[in-house]
Write a structure and sequence with these properties.
alpha/beta, 2 domains, 10-stranded mixed β-sheet
Length: 274
């Protein structure tokens, strides 16, 4: 039985798919299965996958529905850990090995991400955090600090807590991290670029940036309300301030991102003083 199941959703990725799969096959850690989930491609993506003669590769043909496709992948996985990968990215040869070692040595870690090396329209190292993430739910409030195609997830954790991807357009990963953090899952980030992350004009996040920003704000509002409900700071005036700011938002005197930034800074300061 494989230790790791790699979920690779594919939609019209003929230009990059062969390079992506080859980077998986070059991994120094070899006990994995690769689930290629074709999300209704109309180009030659399926033919490229079928050209690989490797018993570890399974191709699953899906209707074009990205969230359903991701969840089907989770349900089909037989490995202990689930690694995400995108069809236009490239794995560093030691990625799986490094993440497997972290997950095995730290049984409380639910999600292990890495830094990434951006290439294409932009270049540089991207990433946030170093080893264990302190207060993961609060850390998620201002931004999504986990690079989705870099993660390895403990399958038993998401099964036990009945966590799946939800229909949050172009921010389904951000919502999943919220749900995992709210279930007290621990996050770990390896501060090494173990993924080459392609930046292109045709990238889904670039084509749908306005919707993604709107969805992210909805998730941030959910996170803030969870933090306020947990009330770990024991300060009533914090709740009162939130409701006052909501009224100001309704009157178009303050916008949502300003509320999120204000409360992130304030809750962080309170946490640091405790």
């Amino acid at each position: 039985m494989p230790d790791i199941s790699i979920i690779l959703p594919v939609y019209n990725a003929v230009s990059y798919l062969e390079e992506c799969i080859n980077s998986v096959l070059r991994q120094t850690f070899q006990n994995y299965e690769l689930l290629v989930l074709d999300d209704g491609s109309t180009d030659g993506s399926v033919s490229i996958v079928k050209s690989f003669n490797d018993a570890r590769i399974r191709i699953i043909l899906c209707e074009h529905n990205f969230i359903n496709t991701l969840n089907l992948g989770i349900n089909e996985c037989i490995g202990k850990y689930i690694a995400r990968m995108d069809a236009d990215d490239i794995m560093h040869e030691d990625r799986l090995k490094r993440q497997y070692e972290i997950m095995e040595a730290n049984q409380d870690v639910a999600v292990c991400g890495t830094y990434a090396e951006a290439f294409g329209l932009a270049n540089g190292i991207i990433g946030y955090g170093n080893n264990y993430i302190d207060s993961p739910l609060l850390s998620l409030l201002p931004h999504n600090y986990i690079i989705h195609p870099s993660v390895m997830i403990r399958k038993s954790f998401i099964h036990h807590n009945n966590i799946r991807y939800q229909n949050y357009p172009y921010a389904e990963d951000y919502k999943m991290w919220e749900d995992i953090a709210n279930a007290d899952g621990k996050f770990y980030v390896i501060p090494e670029p173990l993924l080459k992350y392609r930046i292109s004009q045709g990238q889904v996040s670039n084509l749908n940036s306005a919707t993604q920003i709107e969805t992210a704000l909805a998730i941030q509002t959910e996170i803030l309300e969870i933090l306020l409900k947990k009330n770990t700071y024991k300060k009533e005036w914090v709740d009162n301030l939130y409701y006052t700011m909501l009224e100001a938002n309704n009157d178009d005197l303050i916008d949502g991102p300003h509320i999120i930034k204000t409360f992130y800074n304030m809750l962080t300061a309170i946490k640091n003083k405790c």
